[in-house]
Design a protein that fits this description.
The protein has 188 residues and is α/β, with parallel strands linked by helices. The chain has a single domain (6-184), classed as 3-Layer(aba) Sandwich (Rossmann fold), CATH 3.40.50.360. It has helices spanning 20-28, 61-72, 89-96, 122-134, 163-184; strands at residues 6-12, 36-40, 75-80, 108-114, 138-147. It has a five-stranded parallel beta sheet, sandwiched between helices. β3, α3 and β4 form a beta-alpha-beta unit. The protein starts with 5 loop residues before the first strand and ends with a helix.
Length: 188
Amino acid sequence: MSETCVKILAISGSLRTGSSNTALLSAAATLFPENTTFKTYEGLADLPHFSPELDGDDSPVPVKNLRALLQEADGVLICTPEYAYGMPGVLKNALDWTVSTGEFAGKPVVAISASPYSTGGAQAHASLVLTLSALAANTVEPGSLIVPFVRTKLGANGDISDPATAQSLRALLGLLVKVVKRLMGGDL
């Protein structure tokens, strides 16, 4: 009997080319346990500004695509930078598009913030967790990680060069997969 494959969707809250948050997610893909597939959401910039008038049966295609990816995923990994003491508007916008349809309800989610500053984006992290709570996401406990000085923790080839950060991230991802499998009724 083969073990069920766990599907994880990763969302970076940054649109910036060369983003440390996106690089951290790419590195995370190599740290997941076996039997885990990892897909990075690429459509954040394509989402229109949220408007209830646009929501409904005929929502814009980028919104339908996001919702479909979230529905297909067994768990979600979100990594956000911090802008003006909060998560970026584009990430909040993406989350707003799921309010009426509930893709995050009960879905296991891990929240990460990463920043070049000593705070690690703690305010953005708190904002993200608060929004996930409003969406009834199953925020894995203690399923969060705040990464200060992120640029010093990523190697030139895109790997995580800081052993403590790699270990913390590996443990967090293992916890996410464990929670997903428990909810699926599968192997631990």
